[in-house]
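Handoff note, outgoing to incoming analyst
You'll be picking up this chain. Sequence as last confirmed:
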Amino acid sequence: MSQSPQNPRRALTQDEVFVLEQIQDMYGPQNTEDKVFFSDRNEAVLLVADRNGVQGMMAVLTNLAAWYADGTIPSVQELRDKWLTAG
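Most recent structure output, in case you need it:
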């Protein structure tokens, strides 16, 4: 999905950046902020690629960040093991 006037690019929130950093640590630095796109609901989304460039999952950074911030995802370990692991 490309950016459009209806989906203008915005800066990621601090919490979304935190989730992106976890993805980069797990899957590699090729998962950059410029690869993030925004849904019609203004959610930050990333098609996560492994170190070989293979896309294995879609991460909605906005939702993951909100769930981590409000305690629905109670720890970084759970975020990484349960929510950011493809498969």
